[in-house]
Amino acid sequence: MSLEDLEASCLQCQRCDLAKERKHVVVSRGQPSARLMVIGEAPGADEDAQGRPFVGRSGRLLDASLTEVGLDQEDDIYICNLIKCRPPGNRRPTPVELKACRPWLDRQILEVNPEVLLILGATASASLLESRTPISRLRGQWTQWKGRFVMPSFHPSYLLRNPSREPGKPRSLFIADLTQVKDALNGVVSGLTPDSSDR
Ligand code: URA
Fold it and tell me: Is the CB of residue 158 less than 8 Å from the CB of residue 139?
């Protein structure tokens, strides 16, 4: 299945009850051949209205931060979410919803075939990495997932609630994490070599 076919099928998805209330399925934005995939949690109201991920306040902060470290979201990056439809009231996705939606994300990763995954927030990190480690400890540490570099970091909505840019505060740690991602894409990563035969 090509990425185009995948996205077209995803738009018709009825695998869980979120299909009943959504305005749009929110599949992706950015570059289908990107070396970096950014994975958020779930669409919010703005994303549900527009059918594109990270287009509200969190998205503006994400875009500004990516630009700040020199990553161009239209050229270098494919952006998507763990789940493709908005949970009512922006609640956390349930295990049933996560399970129903997961094959879409797995296919997106296979088709885009990014070298690096940037995972935003506790829910997406816990689900993708099957880890109970708090995001405050996971973030900033390279890990691997199926032969790809993975950088977990804070969710931009958390940074909106914690806007200080002082050193050591979440916003500056987020920039440090994005800088590590940028360096990895430039081939400057020490101590970790993902085995691409795992992909
Ligand atoms: N938060 C997310 O996790 N994803 C979006 O697309 C928007 C807000």
Answer: no
